[in-house]
Amino acid sequence: MTPCAVRIECQRIYILRKNALLVAVSTSLDSQIRIWDLEQLKQNKIIDAGAVQAWTAKFSPDSKHIATGTSSGNVNQYSVETGEKVQTFEGRGKFSMCVAYSPNGEYVACGTEASSDSATVLLFDVATGKLRSTFKGHAMTVRSIAFSDDSTKLVTGSDDKRIMIHDAVHGDTIRTLSGHSAWVLSVAVSSDGVHVASGSSDSKVKLWDLVADQCIDTMDGHSDQ
Amino acid sequence: MYHPQSKYLEIPIRNTDNVLEIARSNLPSPSELFDIFKTERAPLKYYVLFSLEFARQKNTDAAIKVLVDGLSADYLRNVEPHLPLHNLLACLYIRKAYQSGITPQERNAFWSEATRHLGLAERINPKEDTTWITKDEAYRHFKQVLIENNRSIPAILGVARILFIRENYGQALNYYRSVLKLQPDFTPNPRIGMGLCFYKLGMDDTAQQAFERCVEMNADDATAHVLLAILCFNKCKRSDLSEEEIKQIYRTGFMHLKNAYTADKKSPVVGLYMAKHFVVTQDTEKAMAFATKASNSHGLKNVQAEGFYTMGRIHHQQERYVEALACYGKAVSFNPENLLAQFGLGQTLLFKQDVAGAISAFERILSKQPKCVEAIAILGSIYSRSAASKSKALEFFDKATNIIHERNTLSVQDPLMFTEMAQLLEQTDTAKTSKAYMFALGICGQKIERGEPVEYMPELLNNVAAITHMDGRLEAAEGSYNKALEMCAGKDGDVDMATEATITTIRYNLARLYEDRNEIKRAEEIYKDIANKYHGYADAHLRLGVIEQSRGNFEQAAELYKDVFGMIDNKNVDAWTLMGMLQQKQNQIRNSRKTLERIVKEINRHDVYALLALGNNHLGIAREEKDNMAMKQELYKKAFEFFDKVLKIDAYNAYAANGIAISLAVHGHHTEAREMFLQLREAASAIPTIWLNLALVSADMGQYRNAVLLYASVSKKFFNNEDENVILSMAKAQYCLAKQEKSPEKMLQALTMAQRAYRLNPSDKTALYDIALIQQSYAQLVSDRAADQRTVEDINHAMAGLGAAKGILKSLIAVPAKEHVYYEREIAAQREKHGDSLLTILQRKLKDQEIFEADRQKVVDETRKKREAEKAKKDEEKRIHLERQDEEERDILERRRALDQGAKETQRELDEMNRERAERKRMTVSDDDASDGDMDATGEREVKKQKKERKQKEPREPKEPKEPKEPRKGKLRKKSEREGRARSRSTDRDRDEDDGADDSTSKVSSKKYKSKENIDSDEDDLSD
């Protein structure tokens, strides 16, 4: 596989510093999960996930596993070592668009496509593989998801232009941040857990203060999504 | 009439056609004449006629008598103005005053009479021509008198009066002053005239003092009292006074008025002001009585006009518009310059729906007072009522606004004007609308500050908020809505129906705002509350339905819509429309069509929205129809009809025009359709559909590149690149472009686009199918390319793509049959097989390509080798060359060093030689000198020859040895060498080589010449 092919076919690439080695995992339409060694720029391993069954992939904090979101709505966990599927978190049948591990490794959360009858954010317990909490509230597809560093908060961004902050421990939604005028495509939490940054499809980046519960800055420098 | 030539004067006999002829030569006495006039009720002009005849016959007294009789004739009282009589009398008195043989007192008396009549004439109508003429005449005469006797008070007064009428107040004042000096207690009191002058000159306080002095002198001076009263009343209109002060002044004014009334109960002016006072105190009956009296004061047009105006106002206040209109009409007929009466007339005409009359009344005001904001505003308001004159209305509103800006005050304005203006602007200009609303609000705010009640403040605020809301400034709008709610809540006591309705409206708007801000829950709560409280508030139900629909709860949404047209209002178009759209969304196309048809058939035949939706609905069905072509055409035709209907209702409806253009396009008239879309885009660039259609029709016409560009710009401009279908359409256009141009590179771009679309909605199987298709097409294109235009890498890439496509197609084929998909499963299966065969072909071609590339590589390698060998050779040569050069340089350096050494030695030798020679010289001087000179001459010649040779030879044969070894001629040799070096530096090397070669052969001899050179060059350096 040439680098050119990666550019065209990969949908999501996640990079992780593992044992001082840069490793990346990528998913593509041919249903292959590829693990890359970024220092030697070569492919370490290919995991075949089955047709259209690997939309996004993320490393677990201990780098031993990879979680992928699938079109069936399940989240599959693969072992990096063997490439075997080791666990399946049962979703609700709706395409899971984004996946995140909590930094403490206890939870896996996913955001799904919009649906009228079920929640769009699911939180699983990694140890038991069971659904721990569901968060209703987003009216449209959830495209981005992120944990705070202390693993207590879960931040989700959706096509409904809103960002929601959920309590991962108690399973309730803490607040909703409205202000974007287009889809929210990415969210990230600052290491002190006070700020949230979000990017939207109209090329704007907003910075939110979770204490004051408001947008403190809007940046408008990008020219494309 | 009066014919100076005829012998007789005629008096018409009452009730017959006959006339009484009176001979000019035999006029009856004035008293006899008066009797005749009285019996025959002769019109006033006959008095004038006979008076003139007497005057012609120089019987001034008789002339005067006739006129005075005429003025006192009872039967003439109500008929015609006495103005000409007064003017004539004034003239006659002036004539009398010029009679000779009268005493100064008598003369003065005549002047006074003349002045008095002039004044009366003026009061009737100061602008009448004859008055002016009389006055001019009088002025001339008065001046004449004053030349003769500058103490003639009546003449002075006359002049003053005329000057006053000519608005020359300063000079008039001076004349009045001189009267005051001459006779301070003269009646009429000159102070009145002075006061009037002061007043006209804007010195109100001085005027007041003057009038007060009159009152002091004569407490019964009605004129002074009434003038004082007027002054006070005018003062009350000043805005810088406190309420208490105004009341005080008004009271004083009224006191003066009362005094004036006591002094002169018949004075019409006093009566008029009494009437006005009673209007203020709402004592309608008394006011009406006085006003009626004033309106009957014949001969004083202004006063009559004012009287009628006041009557009109009273009627107006009591809403007796017909009477009011009549009174205003009379007032205006007496004095067209009475603008207030004009205004009242306009208002009442407007009430009577006589719009044209009202407009002309207000226009008349504007012709006199172009900056009368009230009239402008009302005209604007009138024009705003009809759609045709909207622009005119706006013009007027703009004018009014500008004037208000100029004056920089809102205090006297009616917020209604701005409200009307804003409502007018709402459709067209949001910025101006909100500005107008802000004005209205500002005025209301000032009114509230002054403690005046403002009834519609919350509504106004609501409208402002709605404007800001629609403008997208949600925070500001929320603030305004809440403020409006607070105001409603602030109203004490029971909340009346109207207020409650307002509150509901504002809350509904607030909920809409929450909805816009995605705070659906808050919005929902309000809607639910409204729906519970007022079941009939259909909009709240509908919004709840829309919310449910957006959540995907279609059943609940449908229930809510049904509630509205089922239980609240069966003719609620919005509800039916929403229902129709919902059904469409649920793919219940036929039901949707039925619902929409219901709107058009049963509720509103001209409902543009429903008609458009029906048009689109038919278009949609037509597009889906794949088998029955006749049916398809029929559906397109129907769609076309709907759009056509809309265009007949609203000729500028871009959506309908868009539909028509689509029909054109589907019938194959691409060029026309494209032209139409282009025009539409120009006119309604904010409608994305038009752009999309333009792109589509461009693609249909094979202008794929254009289509791709259009899709890209639409996607970015309208959809934030969020719309999957747009991007997928772009990918399709790009796909066609790539196929057309047989370009795998462009196909890869199409792939990127399709993947982008897929990423937006990963559960969309159409995008996946397209991706597989594009992958295969890419492989096909790569396969079709000539071997030298592709690489192994390309083929590998294509094969990998085929693999991915196969995976996708497999998954697509595996989709359960019950799921509706937009691709044919069999075709997908065929595609999969096609991919397999392509793969086989590519595998074979890969081998060929590898061989081809290996061959090519070989050729390339060989060529490269050859090239490299050549290059190596060249390099070697160059290297050798360089080495030699280095060597030479080294040699030169060494030789230089040696030379340096040699030079020193030579110097030493020379020194020694010189010493020796000096010693020898002392012995044999003459011999030595002669031999040296000869030697030099021959040497020079020889060198010249050599130089010539070298010039030709050197470039061509640089290696030729050139140094003749003649140590003796060292000095000369050196010269030639220097020249050679100057000629061409490039030859140095060669020469130096030679030098090097020389070295060994002539080591000893060279020493000398080199040293010589060294010395010489030093000399040269010096000379340079």
Automatic annotation (TrEMBL), chain A:
WD repeats lie at residues 135-176, 177-218. Residues 18-92 form the Translation initiation factor beta propellor-like domain. Keywords: Repeat, WD repeat. It comes from the Eukaryota. One of its GO terms (cellular component) is Cdc73/Paf1 complex. Pfam families: eIF2A, WD40. This is WD repeat-containing protein 61. It comes from Dissophora globulifera.
UniProtKB/TrEMBL annotation, chain B:
TPR repeats lie at residues 153-186, 305-338. Residues 896-925, 951-969, 976-990 have a biased composition (Basic and acidic residues). One of its GO terms (biological process) is transcription elongation by RNA polymerase II. InterPro entries: Ctr9, TPR-like_helical_dom_sf, TPR_rpt. GO terms for cellular component: Cdc73/Paf1 complex. Keywords: Repeat, TPR repeat. Residues 926-937 have a biased composition (Acidic residues). The keyword DNA-binding does not apply. It comes from the Eukaryota. One of its GO terms (molecular function) is RNA polymerase II complex binding. It holds the Pfam family TPR_16. SUPFAM superfamilies: TPR-like (SSF48452). Gene3D superfamilies: Tetratricopeptide repeat domain (1.25.40.10). SMART domains: TPR. Residues 861-882, 896-1024 are annotated as: Disordered. This is Protein required for normal CLN1 and CLN2 G1 cyclin expression. The lineage of its organism: Eukaryota, Fungi, Fungi incertae sedis, Mucoromycota, Mortierellomycotina.
